[in-house]
Design goal:
- This protein is mainly beta.
- It is 7% helix and 21% strand.
- It has 1 helix and 9 strands.
- The protein has one helix at residues 126-135, and strands spanning 3-5, 13-15, 23-25, 33-35, 43-45, 63-65, 83-85, 97-100, 117-120.
- The strands form 4 sheets. A 3-stranded parallel sheet has the order 1-3-5, with no helix packed on it. It has a two-stranded parallel ribbon with strand order 2-4. A two-stranded parallel sheet has the order 6-7.
Length: 141
């Protein structure tokens, strides 16, 4: 039940630990690795999480606002029913990633291989729809 505000924890390794009810508010986490952690009731608001490794974490029903996840690794993550509001998700790595009922509207999603994301009832905006269609081979004119 810790709260971190405007902290800088770059290139840190969080492994086999509990971050239960931990809040990260406007923190710089660039290059950090999160491996086999308990992130129940975990929250992230703002900050720079670019190039982080969050593989296989459970973001179920999390609300993330204004977070820069540029080039982060979301392989194997559960993003089901999460809300990404005004986030930068450009160039994130995905594969075996679930985004059922996820709301991506208003977030930047350039450079993603959408074939690695399972989407069902996923909320997207028009720009994201064009990116997804292009990734799937459609010629958007």
């Amino acid at each position: 039940a810790s709260v971190f505000r405007r902290c800088r924890m770059t290139n840190c390794v969080f492994e086999l630990c509990s971050l239960f009810d931990t809040a990260f508010d406007s923190c710089k986490m660039t290059g950090s690795v999160f491996y086999e952690i308990d992130c129940t009731c975990f929250s992230i608001t703002g900050g720079d999480w670019s190039f982080t490794d969050v593989r296989e974490l459970d973001f179920y029903k999390m609300k993330l606002c204004g977070v820069n996840f540029d080039h982060a690794d979301f392989t194997g993550c559960c993003l089901d029913q999460a809300v990404f509001q005004d986030c930068n998700l450009s160039h994130i790595k995905v594969g075996n990633t679930s985004a059922v009922g996820t709301d991506f509207r208003s977030s930047t999603m350039d450079g993603i291989d959408f074939r690695g994301i399972q989407m069902k009832k996923t909320k997207i905006d028009l720009t994201q729809a064009i990116l997804i269609a292009s990734c799937m081979g459609a010629e958007c004119i």
